[in-house]
Amino acid sequence: MSDLQEIPLFPLQLVLFPGGRLDLQIYERRYIDLITHCMRTQTGFGVCLLKRGLETAAAGTSQTIHRTGTYANIIDWDQLPNGLLGITVEGSAKFNIEECWQTPSDVLTAKVIFSEKDSVGKEPIPIDDDYTALAQLLQNLESHPLVEQQNLIIDYDNLWDLGWRLAELIPIENEKRQQLLEIDDPWERIENIEQLVSELANES
């Protein structure tokens, strides 16, 4: 897993975590071609948070991205009522970018190293009683209609799942969400989330 692998990137103004799901509308030619290729070859792409720039291509603009993202696999697709291609993707593993460039088709591509730990399917880490309140918070967040629609599979007794899902769902800025993604230690991540939740409670 420590070997460099080349993957296409899909910069967005959001942060995806392993096990998380996104619904995307595909309308730019470069991404229609990318998604068509991914579906044909049963491969995925990397989702990275934009530092600067727009999600869509515009003359005279450029994109700057964070160097840590999440690999996403397409799990569903359909033609939307507006005629656009709609896809649902699911995050599988975190990666760090070693090198990045733009291809002639205007798709960002990178050589990345995948995380050996921060990925779906790893050995679960049982949750201490200290984090029962956070597990209950996650259950409350999951009951929101917009979250329910995602049909997330959450193991509430697994520290990985608890950290990933809370990091996605608590109301914080994307930069803070990105900082949580970049943490490699799941215990450190959950402690940071606990602090953020405490700060949010004090603000309300």
Write the layout of secondary structure elements.
Elements: E1 5-12, E2 21-26, H1 29-41, E3 45-52, E4 64-65, E5 68-79, E6 85-102, E7 108-119, H2 132-142, H3 145-148, H4 159-169, H5 174-182, H6 186-203
Parallel strand pairs: 1-3
Antiparallel strand pairs: 1-7, 2-6, 3-4, 3-5, 5-6, 6-7
Helix pairs in contact: 2-4, 4-6
Give a nutshell description of this structure:
This protein has about 200 residues and is of the alpha+beta class. It has helices at about 30-40, 130-140, 145-150, 160-170, 175-180, 185-204, and strands at about 5-10, 20-25, 45-50, 65, 70-80, 85-100, 110-120. A hairpin with a 5-residue loop joins strand 5 and strand 6.
Descriptive overview:
The protein has 204 residues and is an alpha+beta fold. The chain has 2 domains: 5-116, LON domain-like (Archaeosine Trna-guanine Transglycosylase, Chain: A, domain 4), CATH 2.30.130; 129-203, Up-down Bundle (Methane Monooxygenase Hydroxylase, Chain G, domain 1). It is 32% helix and 32% strand. It has helices spanning 29-41, 132-142, 145-148, 159-169, 174-182, 186-203, and strands spanning 5-12, 21-26, 45-52, 64-65, 68-79, 85-102, 108-119. A 5-stranded mixed beta barrel has the order 1-3-5-6-7. Helix 4 (159-169) runs parallel beside helix 6 (186-203). The chain is globular and about 50 Å long. It starts with a strand and ends with a helix.
